[in-house]
Amino acid sequence: DADDSVLIPIPMDPKTGEMAFFGTAFMDANVGEDLGSVLTAKGKTKQRSTAPDPGLRFAARIIDYGLWGILLGLLVQFLGSMGILSANTVQLLTGPFLAPVIITLSFVFVETAVLVFLPATPGKLVLDIHVATCVSNPYAATEPGALLSASWRRAFWVWSRGIAAGVIPFYIFTLLRARKTLVKSKETSWDFDSDCLVTHGKAGLPITALAALLVGGIVWLYATQWATPFWQTMNASWRYATGGASSVQGTLKTLTGDMPTYAPKELPTAPEKENRTIQLEKTAQELVGKQDWKSLSEHCLAWTKEEERNADGWFCYGRALHELADHAGAVTALKRATLLDPSNDDIRRLLKKSSLIDMQNKQLRMRGAPEQAEPVIQRGTDGGR
To answer: Cα 171 from chain centroid?
Structure first.
C-alpha cells in the first residue's frame, strides 16, 4: 500500500539539488520510538530527545564533572607541591565555592572537543547516552566547523542555563527548571537551540549499579573534602555579616542622635566597700566637720599606711596638709591620689591650688634671703707698709 511506504530523500548532487528517494515497502512501527519526531509528519510535537530520562542525564553529568574535578584537583595539588602555587592559592582553588565554577567552566572546552569526535562524554558513555550534533543539516558530517560550533553552543548553554555557571546555590533552581522543561517538552532548550539529538539506550541493572556506585563515590569524596571548609566559610561570613550589621546600626543611631540606652541591670555594679574603709571615711568626715586639721592629718596618714592604694586616703591626707599650710607635703600626697584616681576633678583642683601656693612660697623665700657679704681680704703686716 502506498500509504504505508516511507520515502527518505537523500541528496546526490549539492549543485543541481537532485534527490534520490529510497524507502521501504512498509513503514516500521518503531521508527518514531527510535528517532523521535525527526522522521514523523509535520504538526506533531517536536522531539529531538528519544525517551528522555532526566535522572540518567543528571547522573551522567555528575560523573563527568566529578572525574574532571579529580583530575584538576590532582593538577593543582601537584603545582602546589612544586612551589608554583602557594598553599593559600591551592586552598582557594580547591574550595567548595570557587572549585565548582572552575570545574564546570573548564569542562565546557573538554565537552566541546569530545563531542566533535565522539558521540558521548565518559559519563554518557557509561549510561549509554549519545549526542548527535547538527541533525537537521545533511552536510554537517563534512563540515567540522559546523560540528565544532554546535558542540560549543550546547556545552556553553548547559553551563550557563543548566547549572548557573556552577554558582552555589543558583544551579539548584536552574536544574529544577531544566528538568521541568525536559519532562514537558521532551528536550532541553540547549538541545533544541544547538540542533542536537540525544538518544538513550537501555539502562539495565549492571549499568544502573555502576552509575550508582560512581555517583555515590564522587558525592562522598567531594562531601568529605568540602564539608569542613564550607561550614568554616559560612560561619565566618555569618559573623562578619552580623558584626557589620551591628556596626551600621550603631553608626546610624549615632548620626540620627538616637544614642543607645542601657537598663540599670546592664550597668556594672560598683564593688562594695569593706567595713574598715567605711569606718575610716566616717571618722575623716567627722574631723573635717570639726575642722580639726591636725587630727585629720594624723588620721589620714594612718589611713594611707593601712590602705596604700586607696585614693581617698591620700586625698584626705593631702587636704589636711593643705589646711595646715604644708603645701609641699600636700602636693606630694595629692600627686599620689591623682595617680590612683586620675578622673577625680576634686583631687586635681586641690593639687593645682596647693602647687601654686607652694611655688609662690618658694619664690618669696628666695627673694627674702639675705645677701652674702663679700669675703674680707686680710692683709699682712707687709701690706701696710
So the answer is: 20
